[in-house]
Design brief:
This protein is an alpha+beta fold and about 70 residues long. About 20% of the residues lie in helices and about 30% in strands. It has a 5-stranded mixed beta sheet with strand order 1-7-6-3-4, with no helix packed on it. A hairpin with a 3-residue loop joins β6 and β7. The longest helix is centred in the first third of the chain and has 7 residues.
């Protein structure tokens, strides 16, 4: 099942998204999380916490779930 994450701005950074999706507890954990776990944005692996996610982007984190930005 895909979880939808609603944003009210043009984009959200990948690090901010991880916190908004309750994958991590604090923004400071983003760098560590991205170095330890595979995160796929629109089917491509990405480790940049500053990666801009826009509406329609799909994020897949094995063992955590699938997400869509709306």
């Amino acid at each position: 099942m895909m979880t939808k994450i609603k944003i009210s701005t043009e984009y959200i950074a990948l690090g901010q998204f991880l916190k908004a999706a309750d994958v991590i507890q604090t923004g400071g954990m983003a760098k560590w999380f991205l170095s330890e776990y595979d995160v796929f944005v629109n089917g491509e692996q990405d480790q940049r916490r500053g990666r801009k996610l826009r509406k329609g982007d799909k994020i897949e984190i094995p063992n955590y779930g699938s997400f869509e930005i709306i």
